[in-house]
């Protein structure tokens, strides 16, 4: 895998008012002609909300819990990233053409940029939402290590940009709310990262029910074990260490960093937290979505 040009730190490009990574913005034109298969499953998240985790869980479900099948390729090859494009690497669309049905497809796109065919054909969606404070901290660290993003600047300036929707994929507030609204008209299973941390087995059973699938209890237990944060952080087929350092520099920060709920408390200052809470109350006014920013008990990894 050779990069044909320097991909480092291009400025974000706005599409319909949404800031995007430059290469991803360039991929959106061809995506408008995307024709899904009826049995495609779309995995949708705002970045840093458990995307790789839910992708690994779903691939394991599709493979009947067979670990050897889930080691056949890195997660980004097993679950193509719809809008992905980067010099020297197969695009999301190219990867999808090589993926046998039934396909798992990952996206971070807000609804305004999603190929209309996915909605028109009522393709099933699993959406995972994570509390905004942990997302912001995780996204800041990701910006630092993933060089397709612009330089993140200081934590304080990044947090302000995050609150104002001036980061790639735009506003977290808009994203989680519009996908929540879609649950009223579209087959969407809306999951919460915090619920998955608290009781992964319970959430996997919700997924199985949504998919109309069943697996023996012992296979579900294997999936829970194999998709724990500790196991995935050690797994080169899940932790993105197979990508060139020109794209993701794991010496700056590992792609899979901590995977816990409440880590934001180690980064936010008191003043930042108060400001964020005020902003959050304003942005989420009238919305019945409830997030947890900490858990009383968290599975030890």
UniProtKB/TrEMBL annotation:
Keyword Transport: no
Record carries keyword Transferase: yes
Keyword set, alphabetical order: Cytoplasm, Transferase
Ranges for domain Sulfotransferase: 38-287
Location within or outside the cell: Cytoplasm
Pfam family, one: Sulfotransfer_1
The enzyme's E.C. designation: 2.8.2.-
Coarse class of the protein's main subcellular location: cytoplasm
Origin: domain of life: Eukaryota
Record-stated family: Belongs to the sulfotransferase 1 family.
Entry-linked PANTHER family: SULFOTRANSFERASE SULT
Protein name: Sulfotransferase
Gene: LOC101842832
């Amino acid at each position: 895998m050779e990069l044909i040009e320097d991909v480092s730190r291009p400025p974000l490009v706005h599409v319909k008012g949404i800031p995007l990574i430059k290469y991803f913005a360039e991929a959106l034109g061809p995506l408008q002609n995307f024709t899904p298969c009826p049995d495609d499953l779309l995995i949708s998240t705002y970045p840093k909300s458990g995307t790789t985790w839910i992708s690994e869980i779903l691939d394991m479900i599709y493979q009947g819990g067979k670990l050897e099948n889930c080691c056949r390729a890195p997660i980004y090859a097993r679950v193509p990233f719809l809008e992905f494009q980067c010099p020297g690497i197969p695009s999301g669309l190219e990867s999808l053409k090589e993926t046998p049905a039934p396909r798992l497809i990952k996206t971070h796109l807000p609804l305004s940029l999603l190929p209309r065919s996915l909605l028109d054909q009522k393709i099933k969606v699993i959406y995972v939402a994570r509390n905004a404070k942990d997302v912001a901290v995780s996204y800041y660290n990701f910006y630092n290590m993933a060089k397709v993003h612009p330089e993140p600047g200081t934590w304080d300036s990044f947090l302000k940009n995050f609150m104002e929707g001036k980061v790639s994929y735009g506003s977290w507030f808009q994203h989680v709310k519009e996908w929540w609204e879609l649950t009223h008209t579209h087959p969407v299973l809306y999951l919460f990262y915090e619920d998955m941390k608290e009781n992964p087995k319970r959430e996997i059973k919700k997924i199985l029910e949504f998919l109309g699938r069943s697996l023996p209890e012992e296979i579900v237990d294997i999936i829970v074990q194999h998709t724990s944060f500790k196991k995935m952080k050690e797994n080169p087929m899940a932790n993105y260490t197979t990508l060139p350092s020109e794209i993701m520099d794991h010496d700056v920060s590992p792609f899979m960093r901590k995977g816990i709920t409440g880590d934001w408390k180690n980064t936010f200052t008191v003043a930042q937290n108060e400001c964020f809470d005020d902003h959050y109350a304003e942005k989420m006014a009238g919305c019945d979505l409830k997030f947890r920013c900490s858990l009383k008990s968290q599975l030890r990894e």
